[in-house]
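Quick one: examine this chain and its backbone structure tokens and tell me how the chain folds. Here goes:
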Amino acid sequence: MRDADVTHETTTITVNGEPAEVLEGVMLLEVLRGLGVEVPTLCHDERLTPYGGCRLCVVARRDAQEGLVPACATPVQRGMVIETDAPEVIESRRQQLQLLTLDHRMDCPVCETRGDCRLQDLISLYGLPDEQLPFDRKSMPRDERSPMIVQDPEKCVLCGRCVRICDEVQGEAAIGIVDRGLATRVATPMDRPLDCEFCGQCVNACPVGALVARPYLSDVPVWQREVVVTTCSYCSCGCQVTVESHEGKLLRVTSNPEEQPNHGKLCAKGWLGWDLLEEPERLEGPLLRRKGRLVRVEWDEALDAVACALRDARSASRPVVGVGSSRLTCEDAYLMQRFLRSVVGSPHVDVGPIGGVSALVEGMGEINGVPHSTATLTDLAQADVALVLRGDPTRTHPLVKTELVQGIRQRGQKLILAHAISGGLERHAQLYLPLEPGTDDMFVNGVTAELLKLGPAALQSCVDVPGFSDWASSIGDYTPEVVAACTGIPAEQITQAARMLLEARKTVAVVVTGLGIPGDEARVTRAAVRLMSLLGLAEADRGVLVLGENTNVQGVLDVGLHAGLFPGHRTATDQSARQELQQLWGGEVPAGPGWSAKEAFSRCSRGEVQLLHIVGQDPMAAWPLSFQARKAIDGAAFVVVQDAFLTKTARHADVVLPVRILGDRDGTVVGADGVRRILRAVRTPPRLPQDGDLFVELARRLGTTLPQGEELQRELAQLLLWPHGRVPLRRFDVVSPPIRHPAWSGMLLDVSPQLFHSGSITRRSRRLQELAPTLVVRLCPDDARDLAVRNGDPVRVSAGERELMLRARVDATVRKGTVVVPWQGSAGDSNSMLMVDVGASLAVNVRRS
């Protein structure tokens, strides 16, 4: 692991008799591997600080400091003479391997990790000394108390990789090395059952099978498995995942440390949440409503029914509405919006109320002109100061959390964490600012006003931007004292945050999104862009990173799955863009923006919509105010749902078309960083179409064609540009005066995404449900004590006439004055009470039942 900010001078050393120009001060192991010289290791991981525990990487020095040295912990010095395959080096490695086998039960033929064990590989390569050492092994039983991870201490070689990656990368320190001498082992604090984030980092880091994933225990050897590298389909981080399968059954999920952007890191969803592909409740064929009941029919009958309903809507000149999902691939989303616009002739196509859409379109788009982030995950990893707004990425985007922890622990990165909810990252922050709900933008405006007074270097470049003068006058109202009164943050901490940002060479502002997070994400994003503009927004080391809620929020906006956007970020009011599309698509394209999903559902409720086509969404279970979605579904004359499961919404549809899901799909997605990545089916997919295939088939039934395969990719390439570039601020807008909200009466209800559970998809994973099996109220210890509530006690959560009775769980990561209730739990329609409108906050009363 090398600090990218440190400059190293070039020097000359000799390796195995050959001179080499290398960087002085870099660890010898990195240099040797860069020269193509293989050096064995067990304890080394490039993501971690050097440990030097296994001693297998020893090499011989032949210069003034002659002797065997560990390559992983020895920095390059001028004039070094190194031999990597000298006889004493080989013998040292063989002896060390022999010592390691004394601590490792050698049951290779029946081991779960046979064929994928680094110790086994090294013994095969180097062999063992002929003379065996006497040793009376201490018996240690397997620890199978954890629901997901099995520990076998008799296989552990004490390399420390699991302990160090949990501490240095995850920042959790859930396990450690305990006891001494022959009794030394890896264990949890007080030997309790493992209770952690279940990211799988320790399992994937273990080189010898001492830690294995319970769900992935298999007798199929690694050489018989099919291996596919794909993109995780949960959040928008774009993590690369390696999935192993055999005869269609998923066997193991890992990640390659060399793959960007996650470098081997995963979260619980990305590691465990793939079992939903094998969920028995998945639909296997289309359903059609007959005499009030959904019955199984053939594909032709179902598609003919949809095509007939579309013709009827066209004949009656009645509106057709399409609502898609930000989990669709770019290709499927593009085909959906093109089908609605060019085949059906309807402008009413939208992606729905998903976290990140408003931040990108109404936030970045309105103020920058282009709805995409101006920073990447790489920028965040290299930032001197990170400003995280609206939420804790521990719960929503765990990769971002690990990037921040690594930056803080290994590079001295400073973190400013400002939001109204908590998730555990605050213990790593240099400045934690627990804002009053909905005041995030006021805080950012206050910091911006302080920066304006301090005179940042980039100020001169902002003066000529339209609207700057009026904006500067309006932002002056946000004095530290006024902002402190609104946000609950001391005035001196607002000034401190401004100075930290001003003094940093590289700065990234992160806007966390997700349904249930209080505050207007678009307003916060606009404030963050203006703040970063004073620091040099268009420069390579500063920017705003919007973390969309789902895997392809950015991608579906790129391809035009939005009521106000054409493909390529052109607004739906742009007549030249409309004419270009008409020429490319060979037909009429409706003018002007269509209805947003919210507006469309309102019109459905009033009986104004002839056909409602819902793709990959479950509004009746997963949208804010979901009880209103039922009125919309019932109010539309004809409802079509494309989904992998018979969701609440699908149960009320006229036609249900089953499709592939997540890891069964092929295509591309665009992460929060603007990089387009490949999504591959991780196994032989079921005999079901992708969403885009259905639009192609419906278009054929309506007498036209849509592009497929290479033709589709050429059309996308003609309209779009990936990756996105940096853009300067387009204009400054006057900000509204600061308003102090009334004091809270009760406790803040936090229904934002949780680490193991974030919506209608994770609910289908039995493994994730096992980690978060029941709907509970989580309280901080202080609030629990004040309410005389203990773990497991029944409590009542009420807001007006709405009330839920749930069990309590005391959790130290919950902020005081807040109650956390995952709104997509197992309590049926509970979210009808819990989930208020997007960005709204709800005060509730909590009492022991």
About this structure: The longest strand covers residues 802-810.
